[in-house]
Amino acid sequence: MKISFSPEDEVFRREVADWLKENLRGEFEQLRFRGGPGDEHRYPEERKQWEQHMAQAGWLCVGWPQDYGGRGLSINQQVIFNEEYARAGGPGHMGHIGEGLAGPTIIAFGTEEQKQRFLPGIVNGTEYWCQGYSEPNAGSDLANVKTRAVLNAEQGRWEIHGQKVWTSLAHEADWCFVIARTEPGSQGHKGLSFLLVPMDQMGVTVQPIEQLTGTSEFNEVFFDQAVTDAANIIGKPGDGWKIAMALLGFERGVSTLGQQMQFKNELDDIIRVAKTNGAAEDPAIRQRIADAWIGLRIMRYNALRMLSGEQDGALRQEAMIYKLHWATWHAELGKLAMDVLGPEAELLDKSPYELTRLQSLFLFTRSDTIYGGSNEIQKNIIAERALGMPKEPKITR
Fold this sequence. Notes:
There is one protein chain. 44% of the residues lie in helices and 12% in strands. It is built from 12 helices and 8 strands. The chain has helices at residues 7-23, 44-56, 75-87, 96-109, 112-123, 240-251, 255-277, 283-307, 317-320, 322-341, 357-365, 375-386, and strands spanning 129-132, 148-152, 157-164, 175-181, 192-198, 204-208, 219-229, 233-234. The strands form 2 sheets. Strands 1-4-5-8 form a 4-stranded mixed beta sheet. Strands 2-3-7-6 form a 4-stranded antiparallel beta sheet, with no helix packed on it. Strand 2 (148-152) and strand 3 (157-164) form a beta hairpin. The chain is globular. The mean pLDDT is 90.
């Protein structure tokens, strides 16, 4: 595991930091530190313009191969870029699902025609993606999906019926990668396929879900005779589970270091408030702040350990513990924020949802231990896949 960077890497770090300092100002100044957890609704169009500005300078998809529009940066340099981006207050990426999930999956498993069709829009910041995994009865249990797709060979397209839920940024997305059951009568992991579906069509309905924060980052998506070209399948019919699992491996890649820098920004805000209002004089609060700092360092070292292996989407043992660790840590950070604020935590400047950043942080972190695989499911994955323990008994009726 590498926990330090070479002199050449540090030169690159200064290049990234200088570019961000020079460009995150003027019309983009208002975007600094915006668009994070509980703040995703802020400045969506301006953030898209920022990403297109980044793309023109070659700062989107920096880890992608140069053949597909990226910079082909080393793992170390990708880590540095994500850290410096978060340190500078770079806004939340509107295109992170395309850049971090759809794109790497298409690069790894797609045909050359699919790469030529879909990758340029991601790397240019002009096409946005969402993830069609969870369903009302298949949240953390992805193998229970009921959305179905039928190939109409005469018309050369897939017809899709079903419902997805908790679909982040579906209201902003041009495309959705959808896990659907394409083999009638199949169950569990079998008979699933990975389809790329256009969102702008009559058969797709997006319905926002209002969160505790008063915002609607998440959505329900209904597919009622939605269609996509027969060629818009990644891999072969039935490969959906394999590709879906590989995508989750990409999710726990270099962007995790950027996520941790955002966490550090939040912790720094909490420490600043604690020093200002006197909460830092409480020994119990000081200990909790210290514990949060220690947990964040552990998170960093485990992420560096994850990144020391091949970046092929495989979920190694150290990657399997990551979601459980950060989700639990972040939820505790939200509680710490409220306890540091004291009585102010319960006051709003205006109704109904004029929340401060720390109030939004607390409310949003209530969901961290649920979405992306609940803590209970994460523990099962660790036990069964990492430790080789017996599978959880299934209740049959």
